[in-house]
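Note to self: the last two entries modelled the partners one at a time, which told us nothing about the interface. This time every component goes in together.
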Amino acid sequence: MPLTEEQQGEIAEARGHSAATLRPVVPALEARLHAPIPVLDHGLVRVVDYMGDDAAVVQAARVSYGAGTRTVRDDAGLIRYLMRHWHSTPFEMCEIKLHVKLPLFVARQWIRHRTASVNEISARYSVLDREFYIPAPEALAAQSATNRQGRGAVLEGDDAALVLALLKDGAARAYGDYEAMLDEEGPGLARELARMALPANIYTQWYWKTNLHNLMHFLRLRGDAHAQWEIRAYAEAIGEVVRDWVPLTWAAFEDYRLNAAQISGPGMAVLCRMLAGETVEREGSGLSAGEWRELMALIGRGG
Amino acid sequence: MPLTEEQQGEIAEARGHSAATLRPVVPALEARLHAPIPVLDHGLVRVVDYMGDDAAVVQAARVSYGAGTRTVRDDAGLIRYLMRHWHSTPFEMCEIKLHVKLPLFVARQWIRHRTASVNEISARYSVLDREFYIPAPEALAAQSATNRQGRGAVLEGDDAALVLALLKDGAARAYGDYEAMLDEEGPGLARELARMALPANIYTQWYWKTNLHNLMHFLRLRGDAHAQWEIRAYAEAIGEVVRDWVPLTWAAFEDYRLNAAQISGPGMAVLCRMLAGETVEREGSGLSAGEWRELMALIGRGG
Amino acid sequence: MPLTEEQQGEIAEARGHSAATLRPVVPALEARLHAPIPVLDHGLVRVVDYMGDDAAVVQAARVSYGAGTRTVRDDAGLIRYLMRHWHSTPFEMCEIKLHVKLPLFVARQWIRHRTASVNEISARYSVLDREFYIPAPEALAAQSATNRQGRGAVLEGDDAALVLALLKDGAARAYGDYEAMLDEEGPGLARELARMALPANIYTQWYWKTNLHNLMHFLRLRGDAHAQWEIRAYAEAIGEVVRDWVPLTWAAFEDYRLNAAQISGPGMAVLCRMLAGETVEREGSGLSAGEWRELMALIGRGG
Amino acid sequence: MPLTEEQQGEIAEARGHSAATLRPVVPALEARLHAPIPVLDHGLVRVVDYMGDDAAVVQAARVSYGAGTRTVRDDAGLIRYLMRHWHSTPFEMCEIKLHVKLPLFVARQWIRHRTASVNEISARYSVLDREFYIPAPEALAAQSATNRQGRGAVLEGDDAALVLALLKDGAARAYGDYEAMLDEEGPGLARELARMALPANIYTQWYWKTNLHNLMHFLRLRGDAHAQWEIRAYAEAIGEVVRDWVPLTWAAFEDYRLNAAQISGPGMAVLCRMLAGETVEREGSGLSAGEWRELMALIGRGG
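The predicted structure of the combined assembly is written out below.
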């Protein structure tokens, strides 16, 4: 149960108060406002506030590029043009604020995105709750033999059981130590010190606010197949939100970022030779083995 | 007349569409939404969108500092505490988007604030309008003799008349040259080149979006007595907006920033000696002439 | 002659003082240090200071990715891998500081890059010099008929003569007005007001400091064929500097950014069908006319 | 012993290679380059690279404010003026790169400063070392009864012994679990998952690069009495480095930031009444209890 009673009360209260506004309103996002989207075993993402919509992107772009843009393109076409040509400032005109509950090791990856505003629960002020991320069996994977940062086969049998036991027992013991150190009848250790004992799968919470441009950058990197599975789960949940919020922008983002290919100069030369009917080998192509493999995968000739 | 008919139509349309939202709503700011606030002779500021309110600042702070803060302080007290102790992230949780029309030389000072999103009308794409800032007589001041960046006495008589004539005639001639170079029956020069001829008092426009923390930093620097009078006029107009938007934050900002004094270590030593009844002279105080003068002004002993 | 005697003296002095350091040193960049590279008619770029080199990029990456990276890749290969996979922080470990003299309208485009530190000459404090950018004949181009932000054919004959006369005379008159308003025997107008009369082709100067990652982003956007020719002249000058400074990074930047193609998901589908021997028409491809044109150009089938 | 043999080798090699440069060189900082400064039980700070010096701050300020500044102030006076009047960009012209080894919970506070470049060792790629921060006895303090984020009395006797035992045993067990999960003969769990079990007092390492302005902001907040003692230890170590690097800037920073007082508008009114000889009570002063207490402390009337 990821939400405290107090938080549930706040959500009900927030969803109970509707008011009139002259600002842009996105009904599909209003339907999501304040309500938690579950992620992992105890985590969540919920939209707390937002500013702007697809039309706000268009409005900003039309200020920059002037009246001439009005006749030639409809909104969807303009947004696609902006995305294709790496225009970023119109997308900065939309803003979103999320409440996120996430394991500490995911928070450490997430916070590397510097262009956002964050208010995180402080373990100097508050005693953290006894909630830890314990992976589902299908997420317990072995170290990849070929990729230093990746996962290989899913663990089975005794191996999986051992890992789950170590994670659960370790978390329980660490939280027990935490409480023992904090105990006012005992050491009464300062909270800012006692939290040292807590492992990286404990859950933390924050408010996280960023603009649409930076959010898409986050989603591209953290939703990528190279990102750790746990942070991708958050990226996917947020992606669903963005799709509802700014559907035209999301469609352009899928075509020109998520599903797009970046092909190097030497890689394009290989493609052009292939298109001209030539059979091209890696030797002499100027590409390294890794580049060659990635390029062949892009054109469906991998493996 | 600072607004085109098209813009007036957009404003009327924007103010004509009200919708329900579950987000925080600030009625006093809704009343201002989209409507232009005149600044200088042809400039304006208008609020296009906003996110959050005083309660959003409090909400974020309470996440960080935990339940313990709930009982001891009311919202106003918490906001004052945050401001006094330089906590910045809770104020980042509010965001505002402004449409601003301003002379180019003011835009050049403004853009130095890097933590904002901007979409400016592009003179590569559009032909700029024939609108120039011509100072009102009371704003036409001589160079200060004592302050290299300041203004002295207001110009009078022939001096004022000469300056006004030069500014008006110069702007008219420059705009005439601009049109002549653009003329499709004549040179048809590229817009991106023709705009070179336009002087720095021509008006430009942009959408400018920033968070409340960065906005207050802007207002402190650009509303200061050392800032150029023209940009201060914009800072004052925005200050009125902020007062309506987040009244508790604004009151704390006035007390702890706008009206606060920053006193150096040596300056505090002087004050403590004075409070102990000692007569202190600058000699031996460790303060430079400038610092001494500034300190005496702070305690009402200037001049 | 773009440098004052005082600046020449400073350069000679700076190049005359060599000292020993334990920091990374790049001999090819030392050879350039402090010496101005001419750009446009009166502009310049010169390297004032730098931090780091290709090895600093590698050093930072190896900290992140650990000892395992040491055996599998040499420095060039690692840098290419980082660039290909959009790793940015290792490139942030290098920093450069430039002194730039540039027309004000170029400065306005340049300053939109927010992730840099800037100290610009202030026309509130100083009287600007009488130096204006007057395009060379081959840079005087007509407005493009097909591209709203672009240039078309070079002007010739009377058209060119008219534009040059208007630019030169306009600048001369504006500077004369400026001096007349500043005249201490006359109005003695404040400098911060008098500068309003100066056109956008006057030269300004600044110190500009940024890291290698942000610099490459700047070079990609401002060295692009869509950027205004005048700022591209600066991007090209800086590109030469970067090539000398971090040659491995520059080579990877050329392959994976400058000469790379970004191809959308639908675009890749078209290419894969073509590679399979199919003749593909735009109808039914899912690409807009603009996207189709850009894709055909990438594979050498434009026109 | 905080440094691996490999790191020691790198340091010796780095300190063994001197080369000539035309850049500004600070001999007192060269003496420190690459050499580790111990912090806490296993932590360190070492300067890896730097750019600029006090003269670089002055050089940038003189560009902005022009020739007029040359005659009236010497370098120290100009730097004091810049600091007093909150000019930030000249201080951005200096840059420093540090290698830091620090406990993970300190890293989490540190990373909240967003205006820096960071490359941290990745526990996805590398197996972390068995090194944990175990506080010295004098750093083991009870939770403060009056300050929710502070420490009270130092623990003694059995309380201290219990806490130390829990921290040491907990770290040992957690690291044992980590190794057991990674064991290639056993589960061979992916490193990115196994690191979940590690507590927040494990050491991590990063390269951290920032400019002098942002560094001073960091030092002011993290060297403050309200900051956690462990991060203050790092701030103090870096403060010593900055003092050697830019002594004029450091002196101004001490006077106008570290030792300066920020006094609110109502607080200044109280001081002025006191200076006029009046006896002022909190009632009627307009100050809250907290503000009054802080003000009295500033003028040595606390307690």
